[in-house]
Design goal:
434 residues; alpha/beta; 13 strands; globular; binds uracil
Length: 434
């Protein structure tokens, strides 16, 4: 088999067979196929597309290009949750302890933030002592003993995706549904869970800006997961404005704890209860989605989920007292407010701009190698539909650099649109694809 023939076939609109896709993935991961041929194939795929069968073969080959976690000796249906990435999305830190407290084990590998979207691993590292890098056996043991474990993605999981994603990033070939599906699902399928609930974000702060694109991505991922023997569902949720009021690392962990205490913002509480409800249902901890929601709500209201969160933090080396004493978190030296210039209603709040402002404050990174300021970020005081008087705080930026805080506050002001008419409340969950 020749790589040149595979490129030519796809360039001319042909359908690749399983052997051709495996030849490409094995050769590229092993270093026998050079970047220039992989780039050419990616560009051919970008223009000609992949059908669902080709996408399944690609996902499967990528999954097998690295380690595949085996959690089969842990009792129960292990459930994973994956968000396609957004601004202010701290739901993992809320839904995982809710599910674990209801007897549904959660085994999760998360990513770091890049660009304007945050990552759970950075957020968790704002907890003093917390370890996000555990050996395979420690990961398994934590799921078994603490009911849940969240760690950083190992370099050995879906090795082909690591190389291919970096190449896509610099060859303008990220934005293709078959490539996105296989990239996300290869990692999810390799991390060993039995059921996966996806949260496909849709709107200005998401990868998918349009509802129909989010629906297609959701359907493809659910389909591939089912073909691979997993129980699957995908939520399509709003990312036109940030989720909750906190954006950053420490700031988001504190908001997650507040939510577990029953005093979180409305949107994040609604989404967390619905996602956790579905995860409990799919993990066979409830006989319907509605019953799962009831259990999730009760876990929060009774304090069981917060207790489970403390157990999880302790099991991974962190200080569980952070739930009662926020002074134990890293603190920002500077804060700069964003003030309302004209009275009215917040009619829009651009999630992408808020994400970029958070990144500027030091909470995010531009390049993979950059470090983050764990205390930096944003607290939104007003969201879409809220009224604001001239001079009111719209938001506050935190940072350990005054210059960065001021720069971020300047940009953040542009995220708010103020009008005279009260807008409709935004929907949180648009649809569930099963
Ligand atoms: N997230 C991924 O992991 N891969 C993609 O291709 C896009 C988003």
């Amino acid at each position: 088999m020749q790589m040149k023939d595979i490129i030519e076939k796809k360039r001319d609109g042909g359908i690749l067979c399983r052997e051709e896709i495996e030849f490409f993935i094995e050769g590229y991961t092993g270093g026998e196929i050079p970047d220039y041929q992989a780039s050419a194939l990616l560009m051919a795929i970008f223009f000609q597309g992949l059908n669902r069968q080709e996408t399944f073969y690609l996902t499967d080959a990528m999954k097998r290009s690295g380690d595949v976690a085996d959690l089969s000796d842990i009792p129960g249906i292990k459930v994973d949750k994956h968000s396609t990435g957004g601004v202010g999305d701290k739901t993992t830190l809320i839904v995982a302890p809710i599910c674990a407290s209801e007897g549904v084990p959660v085994a999760k590998m998360s990513g770091r933030g890049l660009g304007f979207t945050g990552g759970t691993v950075d957020k968790m590292e704002s907890i003093p002592g917390f370890r996000t890098s555990l050996e395979k056996e420690e990961f398994r043991k934590a799921v078994e003993e603490a009911g849940m474990c969240v760690i950083g993605q190992s370099a050995h999981i879906a090795a082909a995706d690591k190389k291919l994603y970096a190449l896509r990033d610099v060859t303008a070939t990220v934005d293709n549904i078959g490539l996105i599906t296989s990239s996300i699902m290869s990692k999810k399928l390799a991390s060993g869970s039995d059921a996966i609930v996806l949260d496909v974000k849709c709107g200005s702060g998401a990868f998918m800006k349009k509802l129909e694109d989010a629906e297609t991505l959701a359907e493809w991922m659910v389909d591939i997961g089912k073909q691979s023997g997993k129980k699957m569902a995908a939520f399509i949720t709003d990312m036109e404005q940030p989720l909750g009021c906190g954006v950053g690392n420490t700031i988001e962990v504190q908001e997650a704890i507040d939510t577990l205490k029953g005093r979180g913002p409305e949107d994040i509480t609604e989404l967390s209860v619905k996602l956790a409800g579905y995860m409990i249902y799919i993990g066979e901890g409830a006989d319907s989605y509605e019953h799962g929601i009831e259990k999730a709500r009760d876990a929060m209201e009774s304090g069981r989920a917060l207790k489970q969160f403390r157990k999880f933090v302790k099991a991974q080396g962190g200080n569980p007292d952070i739930t009662e004493d926020y002074g134990l978190f890293p603190q920002a030296e500077y804060s700069v407010p964003v003030l309302c210039e004209n009275s009215g209603y917040v009619t829009a709040l651009c999630a992408e701009t808020v994400g970029k402002a958070s990144q500027l404050s030091g909470a995010g990174r531009e390049k993979k190698e950059d470090s983050v300021d764990l205390a930096a970020g944003i607290i939104l005081k007003k969201k879409v539909g809220d009224s604001a008087e001239k001079g009111d705080f719209l938001a506050e930026v935190f940072s350990n650099s005054r210059e960065k805080a001021e720069e971020a506050a300047e940009l953040l002001g542009q995220a708010f649109s103020i009008g005279t008419e009260k807008p409709e409340k935004r929907t949180v969950v648009y649809k569930i694809v099963e």
